[in-house]
Amino acid sequence: MQNKINILNLTYNDLEKNLLELGFKKFNVKQIHTWLHSKIIRKIDEMTNISLTNRELLNEKFYIPYLELLEHKVSKIDGTEKFLWQLEDKHTIESVLLRHKGRNTLCISSQVGCAIKCSFCATGKDGFVRNLNLSEILNQVYTIHRRLVKQNESVNNLVYMGMGEPMLNLDNVINSIHILSEEDGLNISKRRITISTSGIIPGIERIMSEKLPVELAISLHSVFDDVRSQLIPINKKYPIEDLYNTLKQYQKLSKRRISFEYILIKDVNTGPLDIEKLADFVHEFDHVLNLIPYNKVDGSDYERPNDKKIEKFHEYLKEFRKVNVTLRREKGSDIDGACGQLRQKNRKD
């Protein structure tokens, strides 16, 4: 593929610029874009309404990349599927397909590794390698979409909650969202797309400024700065008060509900004061609070609370503090596909 352009890395404007310079007509740009992002072809020669001469020119100048599937695991508990992909540079990422009755939610990665290094998460253990390019983000969706189509199904919801911090690769994340939500693409509604963040304030501000109507999920895990900084070191740069003020502004402008993620960790964030202050915090927002019992990660001493403690935490928030709260039953824990368990594997430097 040397000297050829990765055509899936091009936005519509970039594609148009490249093709017009090669002598293509404007209507060809739309045709080719549709083949790439709606019909999701694997080979340029499949573009049957493009002339043979133009296809030869496309093959000479461009290539369509793909992800190599190294491993596919299916949970025996709930049918969750985990995919281990190898990228062109031999690094690896993972994606998770969550099966629900009548809908499929795809959790995709935005980086190889992660620079945030949350202490409860496996992804950051190997450090940060690089951002995923546009095609690597898109191809996680496209490859799994092809599989689902064969089962008369499709991707209904998309969450940027896999490996990496999406707000630190925001150019490629936003470009991918625009392409995936286009009518000439997979036409996934932006309102069915969620960006998860550990609290990168400049990223949230950019989402506000661009008026991107996606869902926002905040990895909260504590409302106390000392505890949150232990769990999420980036909190030292973007402390909870600053995050609170940014989210208040975000909700005032967007009028959108905010999701808060809260991992329950034994003897860390499940005490009486934790629960009261958490309720006070989320009640400041139109919210949904997702409680996630900790999933064991190699190399971490954290432990999951017992089931009784988890249920009491959930019931107290729901019944006594009237929090809009859900207790997320982990999916894919038997295949290391649950929250915090995704990690690079088989990496070849």
Written overview of the protein:
- The structure is a single chain.
- This protein is of the alpha/beta class and 349 residues long.
- The strands form three sheets. A ten-stranded mixed beta sheet has the order 3-4-5-6-9-10-11-12-13-14, with helices on one face.
- The protein has ten helices and 14 strands.
- The mean pLDDT is 93.
- It has two domains: 5-63, DNA polymerase, domain 1 (Orthogonal Bundle); 68-335, TIM Barrel (Alpha-Beta Barrel), CATH 3.20.20.70.
- Strand 9, helix 5 and strand 10 (193-197) form a beta-alpha-beta unit.
SSE layout and pairing:
Blueprint: E1 5-6, H1 12-21, H2 26-37, H3 52-61, E2 62-63, E3 68-74, E4 81-86, E5 92-100, E6 103-107, E7 111-113, E8 128-131, H4 134-149, E9 157-160, H5 170-181, E10 193-197, H6 201-209, E11 215-219, H7 225-231, H8 240-254, E12 258-264, H9 272-282, E13 287-293, H10 307-320, E14 325-327
Helix pairs in contact: 1-2, 4-5, 6-8
